[in-house]
Amino acid sequence: MEIKTLNTQWTDEQILDLIRKLRNDLIKDFLDERCLKQYLEAHFRIREISNVKIELIKRDLKEMLISPVNINHYQDLINHIKETDSAALTENNERLFFKEIETLLKQYLY
Predict the structure, then answer these.
(1) 2, 31, 48, 102 — which has fewest CB within 10 A?
(2) pTM to 2 decimals?
(3) CB burial class (10 A; 0-12, 13-18, 19+) of residue 3?
(4) What is the pLDDT of residue 79?
(5) How many Å apart are CA 51 and CA 44, to the nearest integer?
(6) Torsion sign over Cα 71, 73, 77, 82
(7) Neighbours of 57 (CB within 10 A)
(8) What distance in Å separates the CA atoms of residue 3 and residue 98, rounded to the nearest whole number?
(9) Secondary structure (DSSP) of 39-94
(10) To the nearest 10°, the Cα dihedral for 14, 19, 24, 25?
(11) H or E segment at 1?
């Protein structure tokens, strides 16, 4: 029986730091009200949103910014980085970051 070991340059901590940085960069984009409104219009067909909802979304985005990475949500990406020894993001992996933010947005849209 052969035991397969992964020789990777990425430690768990480095992977989580990378994911946190990418996630936080995206969150910072959404904290810009113009970007947030453009995204809501393009992806949810919402042209108008109240200032109260915008402030609530921004508050929650700021909380997400300082929260730890949801390891369960990003498990496939973590495994991908370990297996390929590469941090190159596929479109599918990139979608994970938007999906996390969309979950937050949907709380205020529906």
Answers:
(1) 2
(2) 0.84
(3) exposed
(4) 92
(5) 17
(6) positive
(7) 22
(8) 36
(9) HHHHHH------HHHHHHHHHHHHHHHHSPP-TTTTHHHHHHHHHHT--PPPHHHH
(10) 100
(11) none
Spans of all domains in the chain:
12-109
Residue 10, classed as helix, strand or coil, is coil
State how far the Cα of 28 lies from the Cα of 19, in Å rounded to an integer. Answer: 14
Give the C-alpha separation, 24 to 19, whole Å.
8
Assess contact for 71 and 81: CB atoms under 8 A. no
Residue type, 109: L
Tens of each residue's pLDDT in the chain, 110 residues? 444 445 668 899 999 999 999 999 999 999 999 999 999 999 999 999 999 999 999 999 999 999 999 999 999 999 999 998 888 887 788 899 999 999 999 999 87
Q: How far apart are CA 92 and CA 79, in angstroms?
A: 14
Is the CB of residue 17 less than 8 Å from the CB of residue 25? no
